[in-house]
Amino acid sequence: MRNILFGIIVIFLTFLTACSNSDDDNSGDGSSDPTTVTQSVINGGGWKVSLFTEDGVDHTSYFNDFQFLFKEHSEVTATKTTTIVTGSWSVFSDSGKTKFLLTFPDIQKFDEISEDWELLSKTSTLIKLKHVSGGNGGSDILELIKL
Question: What is the span of the domain harbouring residue 139?
Answer without folding.
Answer: 30-146
